[in-house]
Amino acid sequence: MSDEGMPMTERETTVRADGAAAADDAAMEAATAREPHLPTPPWRSDVQRRARRGPAPQLDRERIVAAALRIIDAEGVDALSLRRLADDLRVTPMSLYWHVADKAELLELVGHAVLAEIELPDRAGDWQAQLRDVHRAMFDAFLRHPNATDLLIGRARFGPGGLATFERILEILLDAGFTPVDAFDAYQSLYLFSLGFMATSTRSPEFVAVQRAGAAYMATLPAERFPAIRAVTPTIGRRSLDEQFAVGLDVVIAGVAARRAAAVAADGGVAGEGTRGAR
Fold it and tell me: How distant, in Å, are the alpha carbons of 129, 133, 188, 198, 210 from that of 146?
């Protein structure tokens, strides 16, 4: 139907469809402005979706993704459905399919949006300081959207934001003299720590209550049977989330540095310049 309530002609229908496709193109161009030459991942469905014809809603991906992220922030991933999202946007569920193929693609785009919020800092200090700075920036972005953490371990990693962060970390390590194998091993250890920390530190109030009850219970264990646990239990919970992340990050980076020192020693005490040259 046209705005006046009359049936649309075939030409009007095509014009509206082409307009929606153009709007999607513009949104995607804006989202990938920092990485304009990225190839299209094989799982994207833009071509097939835009081949459809019919009336299209006045929406764009940016608006859809922002609304989906608001729902996830407030209520978690399980609360998001295309019907719920359509209700929040005051559109029909079918209108969303002009812009996203399904919920899986929508969640991928939400992950892209979260990773795009990582503000990579300028490189300053030695390689260890640079790694701390990057992972702190990651932590800050993740902390703004703790309910979206699980979305960052799938296809979202291969969007512009995820690839930019991946490139920066590898760049730091390669420039410090790490081999490609050692650089990826270090990256993977830091990545798993960061996401694992967020996954276990931003759970529900019920999860937190269980952890506190567990700590209280351990304080009652017989000291003669569990002397190590009893010695450590009073220290549990003394750090804030930020402090604990900083401590854990330092521990992981210290481990990476120790492995790097051992590799250099095994190579005769000569640190190479990696594959890119030192900066």
Answer: 25, 20, 20, 7, 19
Angle at 207 between CA 206 and CA 212, to 5 degrees: 95
Alpha helices, DSSP H only, in 32-60?
46-50
CB 111 within 8 A of CB 163: no
What DSSP designation does 32 have? T
Higher pLDDT, 279 or 141: 141
The H or E element containing residue 90 is none
- Provide the pLDDT for residue 12: 40
pLDDT of 93 over the 60 cut: yes
List all residues 6 or more positions away from 104 whose beta carbon is below 8 Å from its beta carbon: none
Dihedral sign, CA of 254, 260, 266, 271? negative
- Could you read off the pLDDT of 167-195 as tens digits, one per residue? 999 999 999 999 999 999 999 999 999 98
The residues spanned by each domain of the chain are: 10-100, 127-266
Query: Residue 151: which of 109, 207, 99 has the closest Cα?
Result: 109
Query: Taking Cα atoms as reference points, which of 21, 199, 42, 226 lies closest to residue 29?
Result: 21
CATH number given to 10-100: 1.10.10.60
- For residues 89 and 126, what is the distance between their CA atoms, to the nearest angstrom? 47
Q: Report the distance separating Cα 150 and Cα 169, nearest Å.
A: 21
Q: Hunting for tokens 């804030």 — which residue is that?
A: 240
- What pLDDT, on a 0 to 100 scale, did the predictor assign at position 23? 44
Record: fold of 127-266: Tetracycline Repressor; domain 2 (1.10.357)
128, 111, 140: which is closest to 245 by C-alpha?
Answer: 140
> Is the backbone of residue 125 left (phi > 0), alpha (psi -120 to 50) or beta?
left
